[in-house]
Amino acid sequence: MDVLLKEQQDELLILTINRPQALNALNKEVFAALKAVFSEDLSASYRGIILSGAGNKAFAAGADIKEFIGLSKADAQRLSASGQEVFFLIEASTIPVIAAVQGFALGGGCELAMACHMIVAEEQALFGQPEVNLGLIPGYGATQRLVERIGKSKAIQYLLTADMISAQKAYAYGLVNQVVPQGQSVDAAKKILTKIKTKGPQAVAKILSIVYGDTKDGYKKESELFAQAMISDEANEGVQAFLEKRKPNF
Prior knowledge:
alpha/beta
């Protein structure tokens, strides 16, 4: 059985973590499959990616804890680093990636959702970092991305208490972009990406690289890539279309 299903719809790639019997827990095979996909240059074939989970109970209920048994300190550090590497690949995608969350997004599952550029959550979705319940800490980026998304004061509360965050609170906190009725997260993500598909693909890629790049030099990078965009054929077409009051042909 494939642990990661792939489906192309128009210019969109829909990825589905396919371990419903384990609430789509992230094991080594899932990480390897995600790494294989996001290591490719997807921009030639797709204009957007949706990442979801099989079934209606979970996006991904966390890492596969069975794989933690017997790990040495060096093994654990390699496990964390390899998972972070995969999530960095997702975050570094030059085409937009949306997580469609239909249930539990806990531990590594919440970290995976946060590595995506946007999150659409169904009304029954629950987010959280329960690692402290096991005497552990997050290993795939939650101490950084949760703080970035909801602020330090709220993030530290949820990291230390392991309380779950409802979809409605997640929206209010800025963790998710949109809350939709049950069963509608993938369609809602498609709607967002369909709108983005009408925009300049090179401009979209540049914005993603700035927002998710090294923030230390973010303003400088923004200026440099703005200049590159300004002299591109894509921008020329966009400006001409605006002046001519027509839709651009990107």
